[in-house]
């Protein structure tokens, strides 16, 4: 678990040294959207695929990165994913998928988890995205420019609220 201590240190360092200008782009002008989430169950997977369809219907280019926890089934290999095994002893990820994802300058980056995750917060801290959107959670405050909360704290309502409020940005 020492690598998680190093991960926490790296995350704080990324937050401090990431000089990306963050801003809310009007949804109508946004071209690229990233989606970052933890794989949980087939229902969540299907809800994320539905969100992607809606975003693509709106003319957005969507990239997805998923965290696959140990013992969790990968329902299909449609999305790039990473595991805890790609975290080095020193708290750094050795994953080309992560590097490619964080180097994209998304107009919006949706972090779709109801429970905060230290591994994903590290990726949010490295991200070059203009506006990071996540679940309303005290731990996410430093990592997100916009936070929303689903009406009933489910993934489905979180996704609906993220989509709804992002569309309202002008």
Keywords:
Rossmann fold, six-stranded parallel β-sheet, alpha/beta, single chain, 170 residues
- Major sheet summary line: 6 strands, parallel
CATH topology title: Rossmann fold
Distance between the termini: 44 Å
Domain module tally: 1
Average pLDDT figure: 93
How much of the residues is beta strand, in percent? 15-25%
Structural class: alpha/beta
Rg (C-alpha, Å): 15 Å
Described by the principal axes of the CA atoms, the overall outline is globular
CATH architecture: 3-Layer(aba) Sandwich
Layout of helices and strands, plus pairs?
Blueprint: H1 2-17, E1 32-38, H2 42-57, E2 61-67, E3 80-82, H3 96-102, E4 108-111, H4 118-126, E5 132-135, E6 146-148, H5 155-168
Parallel strand pairs: 1-2, 1-4, 2-3, 4-5, 5-6
Helix pairs in contact: 1-4, 2-5
Task: Describe the model.
There is one protein chain. With 170 residues, the protein is α/β, with parallel strands linked by helices. The chain has one domain (2-168): 3-Layer(aba) Sandwich (Rossmann fold). It is built from 5 helices and 6 strands; from the N terminus they run αβαββαβαββα. A 6-stranded parallel β-sheet has the order 3-2-1-4-5-6, with helices on both faces. Helix 2 (42-57) runs parallel beside helix 5. The longest helix has 16 residues, at 2-17. The radius of gyration is 15 Å and the shape is globular.
